[in-house]
Design goal:
The structure holds two protein chains of two kinds.
Chain A: H1 4-8, H2 11-21, E1 35-37, H3 40-51, H4 71-74, H5 82-99, H6 105-108, H7 121-136, H8 142-159, H9 162-174, H10 177-180, E2 181-183, E3 186-188, E4 196-198, H11 200-211, H12 218-225, H13 232-244, H14 247-259, H15 280-300, E5 313-316, H16 318-324, E6 335-338, H17 352-357, H18 366-377, H19 392-395, H20 405-412, H21 416-431, E7 444-445, E8 448-449, E9 454-456, E10 459-461, H22 464-473, H23 475-490, H24 499-511, H25 516-524, H26 527-530
Antiparallel strand pairs in A: 1-2, 3-4, 5-6, 7-8, 9-10
Helix pairs in contact in A: 5-9, 7-8, 7-9, 8-9, 11-12, 14-15, 18-21, 20-21, 23-24, 23-25, 24-25
Chain B: H1 12-16, E1 24-26, E2 39-50, E3 117-118, E4 138-139, H2 149-154, H3 170-180, E5 185-193, E6 199-209, E7 225-228, E8 236-244, E9 247-250, E10 253-257, E11 271-282, E12 288-297, H4 298-305, H5 313-317, H6 321-331, E13 334-336, E14 343-361, H7 363-372
Classes of the chains: A mainly alpha, B alpha+beta.
Chain lengths: 546, 373
Amino acid sequence: MHSLQSACLGLCATFLLASCGSDGGAIAQTATPEMRRLTEDEYRHSIADLFGADIKVIGRFEPDLRRGGLLAVGTSEVAVTRAGFEQYDNLARNIAAQVVDEKHRKTSVPCTPVAAKAPDDGCAEQFIRTVGPRVLRRPLNDQKVGALTAVARREAETSRDFYAGLEFVLAGLLVAPEFLFRVDVVESDPTRAGATRLDGYSKATRLSYFLWNTTPDEVLLAAVARGELDTAKGLARQVDRMLASPRFETGVRAFFADMLNFDGLAAVTKDPQIYPRFSRTVMGDAEEQTLRTITGHLLAGRGDYRDLFTTRKTFMTRTLGVVYRVPVAAETGWQSFEFSQNDPRAGLLTQISFLTLHGPAGRSSPTLRGKAVREVFLCQKVPDPPGNVDFTPLEDATNPAMKTVRNRLMAHSTNPACAGCHKIMDPMGLALENFDGLGQFREQENGSVIDASGTLDGAQFKNAVELGRAMRDNPATVSCLVRNVAGYAIGRSPGREDNAWLNDLKAGFAKNGHRLPDLMRRIATSDRFYAISTTSGDVKVAGGTH
Amino acid sequence: MSCFARHIFQTSAALILGVTAATHVHADAVKSTPQKAGETRGFVFTYFWYAMSYGADDCPDGLAIALPGGINAPPLYDGGRKGRAISRPRGPSGEDDQCTTPAAFEDPPMRTGKGRTAYGMNLDEGAEAQSCPHENYTGVDGTKGVDNQLYRVLGCINAYRPEAHFQGNVVRDFVVSARQDGQVTTLLEISGIDDPRNDNDVTVGVYSSSNPTHYDAERKGVPYTSLTVNKNPRWHNVLRGKIVDGVVMTEPGDIRLDHYQGEGLKDHTDMYIRGARFRLTLKPDGGMEGTMAGYSDLEAAYRMEFAMGPSVLPKSWGWTCPSAYAAMKKFADGYRDPKTGQCTALSTAYQIEAVPAFVIHPADDAQTAEAAR
């Protein structure tokens, strides 16, 4: 059996070339070409778009890394370990076997071999020329096609199976760095002497994963081939096409799932003795509810982002209805739902996904919820607590003088080392204390009426609904969203050098009524989104095709 | 009192105010709308089976005798005459199945309950003329004149008794498990509540649902699930009632509900209780518990309890169909047929436990009700 690495052929060399480019220490951070490993979500969407949604992606992935509040930023800082490569290898072999099996080969293989048990270079080449550019997100040159065809031939001869040859080649493509990573490839900039720019295929990849969370489609790759992405008009045409596509919703969902730390929902557990309504189904529906709320408001309704903190409109399943204690008419699936004007719930902060994610298994945590509000929605980093904190008073709900967590936190916060941070976290978290650890409404804690009042940066509130209004009107809410979307797009936390860009984005965002699609369009059509080093001496330049 | 089928959604304000009742809604409703008049509370039954007192003096003659071949039922008689159940458990082609046509077989009398105490209500007070001669029980709470003739039939059958040596309470466990497994669901809805402690005019709807009842890992009913009323109008029952000191009491009315016979068993039948009346206490946690008493239609009850088709149940659970049918006819005490003088129903009592639920009425039901008004 040939090694899979042999199927990589020159692809790995290109990978090394590109990675050298990212070592340019003299290059400003903003301009460094990058290699961003596909997240698990991006990988799955890419496979589904390449080969069909019925191709099963079964296996473990290298863990993603959260940096600056986003997994998208962490993708620039992760590699593939030896163990991780084995996992990708297993995934690749499994996927490749499905793609060329009898069920799928009629659609995945564009030709029929002369004999199924013998090599057929013509058909193999046709397959490689069709599939290869889609998988690697750029064309393959004749030399690479020839080499891969030879690999397919050898494997078909060894296995006495034409399709085994295709399977082998495809598995090799799926472990190629150009597939597993979004590799920036630069080229000389014909409009600026001595300068470099991202090549069109790298632009297309950035664009596609930003707006669609998946690999570029054939139309986008064709536009690159025509040089459209190198003109403002051509780029805008493609961006508008992508924003109008149903896949844009997938992209928006991916961004918010990242920003809201929804990768952590799978690990949330609650004590079944305390929260018997907790289940994995509840958590799955809670995540979906929030994402539907967001896309329904921002995309279908073209709503103001800030109103996500006050909206009464959401979606409901019967499973969620039990926790929210509301009737759900739809026997299966989802139905739109609107909380009444005097309901204690409004906005994302009062949804189960947020309330359960930020808390321990057996109780609510105003501190963790408040910390999350600061960090996730206001982009204000709260330092980790000291290592020697005594949480005993906080956990002890039996003290009759401290029935509510507000009482216990006040006692806990008398420690000056703790008080500073608690002052900025706890008020928002305490405003959500009318919702227990599972997000179920309650008026009292241990027989005492819950006081949910507080202040946020000078704005006073009495309860979670008013906290939502304070969040809506807080300027940091908008700044944070702009910063997060920008960081998500470029794969790194925006630095001081990005301030002008961010300010421009923020101004445009406000001018357009805080409409997310407009913000993402502005980013996708901005030079900054595609910016790399300005001189060819800073990085090594790879060829346009492989 | 509110009209039964009007559009009502629970206002979330009720939650703020600590009102924990669930209400009914229509399937086409997607937005909260304020309730116009009277509160509506919905419930789903988590326990619904006979109220059995299991007195020590119930069965002085011993337990009922099963078909021979049962694990706990040795062949006590030799059969003798042709057609006796114990000699011909089944006809060769099924048409003379002793459970399908129990009156065609002769069998020794069933050993039945002779105790003095039972759960139930005095159902025939003032209507004795419609009844057949029978001996009343004293209620578990000391109430005189309690009618529960079905308990006399069931009370000495092995599988209905808790202390029986082999199949103790297996029927109850089967029925309760069927509910827990989602095979049968019963909803109750009280509408037009102006005062949950005392209200002289409320409407009580009792429905079957095809949605499973939800239980948690400890087999406790999950409150506040949304459950849709089955569209079959046969299982839609509406009674008038009142609330006295937090106890809901209904006037008598006939009740038909879906009943689960068991996987693979033939002859599906409804639970059919004539002159049913409820006594239900509203609990502070939003749930409800109490009793339903009434007359179980003889033929429906026989099919529900005994005529389960060709099965091993009469052998292992402790009865014979002919003797059970004969006992039911003997003890029937309600709805006397004026032509034959034979009573066609047996007084009975059920125990009910329920948790709050959102009772969803299918949209077409709502339209039908609106049109009818």
